Fold this sequence. Notes:
Elements: E1 12-13, E2 20-21, H1 24-30, E3 40-41, E4 48-49, H2 52-62, E5 68-69, E6 76-77, H3 80-91, E7 100-101, E8 108-109, H4 112-124, E9 130-131, E10 138-139, H5 142-149, E11 157-158, E12 165-166, H6 169-174
Amino acid sequence: MAHKQSRGERKFGCPQCNKMFLHRGGLKAHLVVHTTERPLKCPDCEKTFKHQQSFTQHILNHRDIRNFPCSICLQTFKTSSYRNAHVLNVHSCKDKEPSFQCPQCPKLFLTMNRLKVHVRLHRQGDARPFQCDTCHKRFKSSGNLKEHKETHGGQVHACGICGKRLHVIHVYALTR
């Protein structure tokens, strides 16, 4: 017979918001939302996190293990979430018209996520806080810097359609 927990057994309450938890561990994990404390620190880049799940996901981003292939173009990804976003943003948007408009400029985007990234760039203005250690070129986002770094010794990929040679494999997928 399986043990069934009922709502009445939630006996561990948060002293700040009164949310109730079945186990003391659940309450302990919850309490970090009420603090500015970020106790989990990445050993590779010094970035800090409140939640174990975010920390673990971030650590995986530093590793080059890509076990999640796209069934359409066979590009591989580090997580299923990245693969699913790729399928949505690259393969599902070809027949769609951009419908998400920036409130600060006339640009249109296919997805809300792309719009959010764009709006963030408006907020930071011309600031380019991310610098390449090799050539000192500066970028607005860590993702753009990461893509750029691959040009300093990463593999070159040729587009099967237009023949253009690109350094970043996911840019190659965008040209398909």
